Every structure is written in structure tokens, then in C-alpha cells.
């Protein structure tokens, strides 16, 4: 009781809420105390016929905003309140008003209210999670682009380019090399510019250490989508409990699919801390992470919200840093992107290459895009949002398998800003080539989906993104995807030139010499720019990876090119198919070792 009293003063919350937050008393126990003291009824979910969302309630008391009309099985109506928001004082004030107005009041727990809404309104909630974006912004969802439409849209983007190449340009290899050179060089210049921002990333995007008491902190929602990751449940619960944030102001949603029986069974045997809540997503096509996030967004209580994956290990002060940066930033800042890194980067060659790529992206490229005011494709986790702005942007596209990158573009369209947050979340890099291919295929397929959706009408894209944003979209998406498509052919041509005997006649040799020089310059400059950015980003992030691994980038690029062609095929064969990445397989997963040792 003494520790709860101290926390009550420290967090500026009632003592009863501190007792609940520290699990010194359970919601059910507290509900029994309230019902005995005030002689009001406790409603069990099984005794309710249905909740009535549309039924209105008149009254001035602030608690009425959290009340839900319910109809019990014996035909009685009640105003039902979650016991977690009640204190003896505010309940007394509420009962004076409701009894005067003749409104019957009952209480239940927040978990039972969530179950009620999920059980009685599963279909409309699931429909909204799937189709909400398309209803709010027609044409912005991938799911409403049928396969023929995708083919037509893709053709509309590529055919004019190739027609211009054939009709306008003379049939000479130099004219084929010229657009390839532009693509490669723009990508390379972006990487060289990003080197400039690696060293001062922390200073520019870091959070001012201004005074901030825990009393002033708002409720923070954490969404954790899980699917067939029973082996990661203890890990993510342990990591989120280490966050340096008042437990009473955390709203953590563990999001599971209804058919994930193994994870649900494991959770049923666990006693979750009070800040955790289980959200079960009903079956609905497509079965994707963004659909699950949209479904859980309905139940979010926080002013701010962050998304974490099952294997994430955020720095303990990340939420507090996010609140500080939100509060000192202009109101149009809707999202903060924390840096992502890997705790198992030294496990093998593939994880080291993955770490170099992530360091370049989060230490260099994203800070550069922020400085230039260009659209920023979000990372898949550690995105912090102002909840009202996230909802006004339509949430996530349930059909886009890289929903984070798509959301970043939509936020830009609505004149919202994204800033980098000076905090790191550590993830698990995929350790094997097959798992890496599945994950990278999904990412690249999502980037193609995002580019096609936002370029479905180029004139509209220019108007919505404005010229700078439109050019940024080409730089970020078109150049990177095109480079991945072209890279193996450039390598094959160079290899053929240096290995095969000359077959070109002297009369036409001039053009092919220039073509060879273009290819060599493109490849050389791209490698130089990528090596510079990789080394600078690794040094900025204090990562100890040798230059030998940097020199292996061309091999890693070839893997990316194989994945981009696999993604291109899937784009038309199975556009919304989500290839699941298995987590918890790394032998360097520190929390896994800790848990095993404790057992």
C-alpha cells in the first residue's frame, strides 16, 4: 500500500488506480469493493444480451463519455462503466446525477467491455478494419485494385517510358544507357548526401532534455500484432514491462488472430499485468498485420500510439522521449520514427549485411528525407503517432503488405510531418536466406503496391504531393525499385564483356564502348556511394562491422534483385499474401536466454 501511495503522488493519479496499475488489486476484486460500497450491480459479459452503441445518453459528467448502454438478458437497460476508471469520489458524483435523471448504472471490467464489443460487433468492426481506408479515401487502398487494374496501372507507368525510348531516341546503346545512368546516379547521389546527416542525426533529431514530470504524461497506447508467435509472448511482455513509463498510463494491446489457437491457449494460462489487454481479431480477408492494427485501433485509449513487433526491444525511455518531441514540435507533426537496429547483427554474414542496410536507412537516408521535406516511408515498427491524426489519415491499408511505407506517403499528402526520434528499437535480423527472401519479397511487393496506388494518376499525384513530393516519390520508390530490377542485367553485361570474345564490328564499336563505360561508371559510383554511406552510418551508430563486409555489398544487392523479381510475380499472382517472418530463431536473442535461465 505504501508503494502505491508513493506512485499515486508521483503519477498524479488516484490511489485506487495506482493499486490497479501495480497489480496489488485486480479489477475483479476492486469491482466487488465498489459494488458492495455503493450497492450497484456488477454486469458479467455472459449476462448481457447486447451492447447498444447508438443509444444516446444525456449528462454532463465526464465519466458518461466512457459509459456504454447495455441490454441485459432479463430485459433491463444499464449504463455500464469500466471499473478501472472509477474512484469512490467520482462514482459518488456520477450517481448523484444519474439517479436524479433516473439512469440505472452498472459496472464491469474493461476486458469484459472489450469482449462485448468484439463479440457483438465483430463483423462491422472487421469490415471497417478492411474497408475503412477505401471508404474514406477512394482509390487509396490496394485491395480495390483488381489484378487487371494492377496490370493496366503498371503498364501506364512503364509503356510511355519505353515508347519514348524507342520513338524519340535513335537505336543506339548510348540511349539505352542514359536512362539507366540517371536512375543509378540519382540513387547514388541520395546516398552520398545522406552521409552528411549521419554524424549529426542525434543532435538534429534528438529530444531536448526538458523537464517533464510523470504527472504530465498522457496515456500511451502500444499495439503489438502477433500471429503464431507463442514462443515470443514472454519476451515481448518482459520487454514492454521494462519501459520507463507509468504503468497506470500504459494501454498495451496484444493483438491475436482468432485462428491462432496456440498463442491464445498460452495467454489463457498466463496472468497478464494490468496494463496489458488482449484483442482477438475475427477472421476476415486479408489476414494481414495492417488489418489487425486497424481492428485494434478502435479500442486505443491513448493520446499517442506506437507499434511494436513481437521481437522488439525498445530503449526504456523511448516513450518519454517521444512525448517530449511531440510536445516541442509543431502540431502538424503526426508521426515519429525511431531508429531500428539489430541485436544479432554479428551472427552471420547475412545479418551483418542486413545491419549495414538498416544503418544506412535509419542513420542516413531517413534523416536526409526529413531535412529535404520529402515523403518518408516508415519502418515497420516503432512508429509513434498522434492518435487523432492517425485516424484522420485512414489508419493502415489492410491490403498493402508494406503498410508502413504507404502510410508515410498518405501522411505527407495530408500535409502531416514525420520526424526521426533519437531512440533505438532492437530487432532480430533474419538469419537464413529462405526467411530473408520471404521477408524481402513482401517488403518489395508492398513498395510496388504503394508506388502503383499513389501513381495511379500522375497528374493527381503531382497535385496531391506537389512537385517536390512527387519527385521525392520517384527518387525513393521508382529509383530504388528500378535499380534492383536492372542491377543483375548490368552485372551480366559487364561479365559478358570481360569474359566473352569481342563480337562487335569496328563500325559499330563506338556506341558499345560508350555503353560499357556507362555501365562501369554506374556500378562503380553506386558501390562507392553505398560503401561511404554504410561506413559513415555504422560509425555514427557505433556499430563494429568490418570494411570487408561493406565490400560484399554487390553480392547482397544481387539477393535483393532476385527478391524484387519474386515480388513482381507475387504482385499479380497473390498481391495481399503475407509471407510470415518467423521470430525467436536467433541464438543471440538475449531476452530468450534470460527467460530460459529463469525457468
Report on the structure:
With 599 residues, the chain is α/β, with parallel strands linked by helices. 55% of the residues lie in helices and 12% in strands. The protein has helices at 2-11, 15-21, 27-38, 88-101, 110-120, 122-136, 147-167, 173-198, 201-205, 233-241, 261-268, 289-297, 318-328, 349-372, 387-392, 403-413, 433-454, 458-499, 509-540, 547-551, 553-573, 590-598, and strands spanning 41-42, 48-52, 68-72, 77-82, 105-108, 220-225, 250-257, 276-281, 304-307, 313-314, 333-342, 383-386, 417-427. The strands form 2 sheets. The protein has an 8-stranded mixed β-sheet, sandwiched between helices. Strand 7, helix 11 (261-268) and strand 8 form a beta-alpha-beta unit. Helix 1 crosses helix 2, helix 8 packs across helix 18 (458-499) and helix 16 (403-413) packs parallel to helix 17 (433-454). The chain starts with a helix and ends with a helix. Residues 203-208, 504-511 and 592-599 have low confidence and may be disordered.
Number of strands: 13
Q: Which sequence of strands runs across the widest sheet?
A: 8-7-6-9-12-11-13-10
Q: Helix coverage percent of residues?
A: 55-70%
Distance between the termini: 30 Å
DSSP strand content: 5-15%
Tell me the structural class: alpha/beta
Radius of gyration: 27 Å
Shape: elongated
Give a short synopsis of this structure.
The protein has 599 residues and is an alpha/beta fold.
Amino acid at each position: 500500500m505504501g508503494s502505491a501511495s508513493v506512485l499515486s503522488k508521483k503519477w498524479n493519479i488516484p490511489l485506487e488506480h495506482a493499486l490497479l496499475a501495480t497489480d496489488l488489486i485486480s479489477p475483479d476484486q476492486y469491482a466487488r469493493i465498489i459494488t458492495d460500497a455503493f450497492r450497484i450491480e456488477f454486469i458479467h459479459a455472459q449476462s448481457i444480451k447486447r451492447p447498444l452503441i447508438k443509444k444516446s445518453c444525456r449528462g454532463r459528467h465526464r465519466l458518461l463519455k466512457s459509459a456504454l448502454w447495455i441490454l441485459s438478458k432479463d430485459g433491463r437497460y444499464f449504463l455500464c462503466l469500466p471499473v478501472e476508471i472509477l474512484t469512490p469520489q467520482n462514482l459518488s458524483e456520477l450517481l448523484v446525477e444519474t439517479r436524479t435523471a433516473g439512469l440505472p448504472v452498472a459496472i464491469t471490467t474493461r476486458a469484459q467491455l472489450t469482449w462485448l464489443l468484439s463479440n457483438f460487433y465483430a463483423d462491422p468492426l472487421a469490415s471497417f478494419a478492411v474497408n475503412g481506408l477505401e471508404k474514406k479515401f477512394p482509390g487509396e487502398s490496394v485491395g480495390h485494385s483488381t489484378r487487371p487494374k494492377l496490370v493496366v496501372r503498371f503498364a501506364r507507368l512503364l509503356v510511355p517510358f519505353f515508347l519514348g525510348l524507342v520513338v524519340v531516341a535513335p537505336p543506339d546503346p548510348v540511349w539505352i544507357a542514359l536512362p539507366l545512368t540517371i536512375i543509378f546516379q540519382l540513387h547514388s547521389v541520395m546516398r552520398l548526401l545522406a552521409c552528411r546527416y549521419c554524424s549529426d542525426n542525434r543532435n538534429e533529431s534528438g529530444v531536448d532534455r526538458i523537464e517533464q514530470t510523470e504527472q504530465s504524461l498522457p496515456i500511451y497506447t502500444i499495439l503489438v500484432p502477433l500471429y503464431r508467435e507463442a514462443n515470443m509472448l514472454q519476451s515481448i511482455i518482459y520487454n514492454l514491462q521494462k519501459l520507463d513509463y507509468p504503468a497506470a498510463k500504459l494501454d498495451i494491446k496484444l493483438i491475436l488472430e482468432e485462428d491462432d489457437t496456440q498463442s491464445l491457449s498460452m495467454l489463457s494460462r498466463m496472468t497478464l499485468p494490468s496494463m496489458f489487454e488482449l484483442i482477438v481479431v475475427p477472421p476476415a480477408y486479408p489476414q494481414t498485420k495492417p488489418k489487425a492494427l486497424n481492428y485494434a485501433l478502435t479500442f486505443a485509449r491513448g493520446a499517442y500510439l506506437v507499434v511494436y513487433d513481437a521481437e522488439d526491444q525498445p530503449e526504456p525511455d523511448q516513450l518519454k522521449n517521444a512525448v517530449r518531441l511531440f510536445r516541442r514540435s509543431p502540431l502538424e507533426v503526426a508521426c515519429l520514427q525511431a531508429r531500428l537496429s539489430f541485436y544479432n547483427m554479428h551472427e552471420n554474414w547475412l545479418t551483418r549485411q542486413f545491419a549495414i542496410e538498416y544503418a544506412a536507412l535509419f542513420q542516413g537516408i531517413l534523416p536526409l528525407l526529413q531535412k529535404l521535406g520529402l515523403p518518408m516511408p516508415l519502418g515497420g515498427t516503432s512508429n509513434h503517432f498522434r492518435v487523432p491524426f492517425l485516424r484522420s489519415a485512414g489508419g493502415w491499408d489492410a491490403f498493402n503488405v508494406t503498410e508502413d511505407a504507404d502510410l508515410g506517403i498518405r501522411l505527407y499528402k495530408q500535409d502531416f510531418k514525420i520526424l526521426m526520434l533519437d531512440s533505438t528499437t532492437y530487432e532480430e535480423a533474419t538469419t537464413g536466406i529462405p526467411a530473408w527472401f520471404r521477408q524481402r519479397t513482401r517488403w518489395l511487393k508492398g513498395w510496388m503496391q504503394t508506388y502503383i496506388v499513389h501513381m495511379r494518376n500522375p497528374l493527381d499525384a503531382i497535385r496531391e504531393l506537389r512537385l517536390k513530393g512527387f519527385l521525392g516519390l520517384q527518387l525513393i520508390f521508382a529509383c530504388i525499385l528500378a535499380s534492383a530490377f536492372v542491377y543483375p542485367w548490368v552485372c551480366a553485361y559487364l561479365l559478358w564483356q570481360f569474359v566473352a570474345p569481342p563480337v562487335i564490328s569496328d563500325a559499330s564499336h563506338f556506341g558499345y564502348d560508350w555503353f560499357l563505360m556507362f555501365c562501369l561508371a554506374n556500378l562503380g559510383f553506386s558501390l562507392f556511394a553505398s560503401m561511404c554511406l554504410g561506413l559513415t552510418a555504422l560509425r555514427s551508430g557505433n556499430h563494429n562491422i568490418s570494411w570487408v563486409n561493406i565490400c560484399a555489398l554487390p553480392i547482397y544487392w544481387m539477393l535483393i534483385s532476385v527478391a524484387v523479381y519474386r515480388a513482381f510475380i507475387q504482385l499479380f499472382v497473390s498481391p495481399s499474401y503475407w509471407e510470415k517472418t518467423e521470430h525467436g530463431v536467433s541464438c543471440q536473442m538475449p531476452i530468450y536466454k534470460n527467460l530460459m535461465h529463469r525457468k
